[in-house]
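can u do me a favor
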């Protein structure tokens, strides 16, 4: 009996130590009981709605709690200990509800401050899970950028790890940046959609090393990591095949990578080069697009689009080279992700960017 009692005492001590010590109710500032009562009423009213629209109602509730606390802090100068006491009182009032820890209440404060526009909250932010919203708060300070990632998360269904990966790879700076002739070749709205789908640069952080690095080996590595490759390409790409055979006359040709885009409703031919851009690459890709249109394209499909991925490019040279091309083509460069973003225990284990690029150049 003594041993069991001692374990229970130690258990309570550990549990109590996990949370900050709240001030006694008698020491709380004037107006606190009224605000606590209002919050209890607000939370109780929302519980039924949470049962039917759990996520949206919860996010709006968190925003409201943060707003109410912030208003009292701004007007009456309440300090952090108020949040600690509020956390304890709310958890005592609603022991079956989670989310009222001091840390989460502080997230609610930051959340309400980050999204002051209630219309944006209702239209976009409240439709995202709380973990995704926390990731947006922790990684992004600029409201415009944060809204871009919120909209893309809602549109693409990104999980919290995928959202974090997209933020770390600065997807907002790369989306829609590929050089192309889409506006001159494709009719709207397909041209606008194609412009937004392709990015520059593409980050292939999953590339390993080998004794040599030729284009075929990079290509094989992309196929070996097809899920990561599709994630980098973006939503809507369906993998068709690698080295897809095209017979033109009596000659055989092979497309590096062939995809179908579900929203554009067309094939996408990707040609991969481990060297800087050369205008002649476009002539080859242009011919592949014509062949795919004739040999593979269904009558209801839109014209096939080409994407040329190179190691580097001169923007002006690419723009000049695209002028005479009659098929829709985008040009972007690819690179590996910087090792500094890896956990400290992995640094030095994986090759550096310079080592990978040297292998690519040596293997031409």
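np, heres the sequence
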């Amino acid at each position: 009996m003594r041993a069991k009692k001692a374990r229970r005492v130690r258990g309570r001590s550990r549990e109590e130590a996990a949370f900050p010590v709240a001030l006694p109710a008698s020491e709380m500032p004037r107006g606190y009981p009224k605000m606590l009562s209002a919050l209890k009423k607000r939370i109780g009213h929302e519980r039924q709605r949470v049962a039917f629209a759990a996520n949206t109602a919860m996010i709006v509730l968190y925003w409201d709690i943060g707003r109410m606390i912030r208003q009292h802090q701004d007007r009456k100068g309440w300090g952090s200990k108020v949040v600690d006491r509020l956390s304890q009182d709310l958890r005592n009032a609603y022991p079956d509800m989670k989310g009222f820890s001091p840390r989460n209440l502080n997230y609610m404060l930051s959340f309400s401050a980050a999204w002051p526009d209630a219309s944006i909250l209702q239209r976009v932010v409240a439709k995202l899970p709380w973990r995704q919203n926390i990731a947006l708060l922790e990684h992004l300070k600029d409201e415009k950028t944060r809204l871009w990632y919120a909209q893309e998360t809602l549109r693409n269904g990104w999980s919290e790890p995928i959202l974090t990966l997209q933020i770390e790879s600065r997807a907002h700076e790369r989306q829609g940046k590929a050089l192309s002739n889409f506006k001159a070749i494709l009719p709207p709205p397909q041209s606008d959609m194609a412009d937004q789908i392709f990015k520059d640069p593409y980050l292939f952080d999953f590339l390993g090393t080998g004794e040599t690095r030729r284009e075929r080996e990079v290509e094989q590595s992309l196929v070996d990591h097809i899920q990561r490759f599709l994630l980098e390409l973006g939503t809507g790409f369906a993998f068709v095949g690698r080295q897809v055979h095209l017979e033109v006359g009596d000659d055989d040709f092979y497309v590096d990578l062939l995809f179908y885009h579900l929203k554009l409703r067309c094939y996408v031919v990707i040609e991969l080069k481990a060297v800087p851009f050369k205008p002649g690459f476009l002539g080859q890709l242009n011919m592949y697009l014509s062949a795919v249109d004739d040999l593979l394209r269904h009558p209801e499909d839109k014209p096939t689009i080409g994407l040329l991925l190179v190691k580097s490019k001169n923007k002006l040279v690419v723009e000049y080279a695209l002028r005479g091309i009659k098929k829709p083509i985008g040009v972007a460069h690819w690179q590996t992700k910087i090792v500094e973003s890896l956990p400290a225990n992995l640094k030095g284990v994986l090759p550096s960017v310079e080592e990978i690029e040297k292998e690519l150049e040596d293997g031409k």
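Residues 1-7, 338-357 have pLDDT under 50 and may be disordered. hope that helps!!
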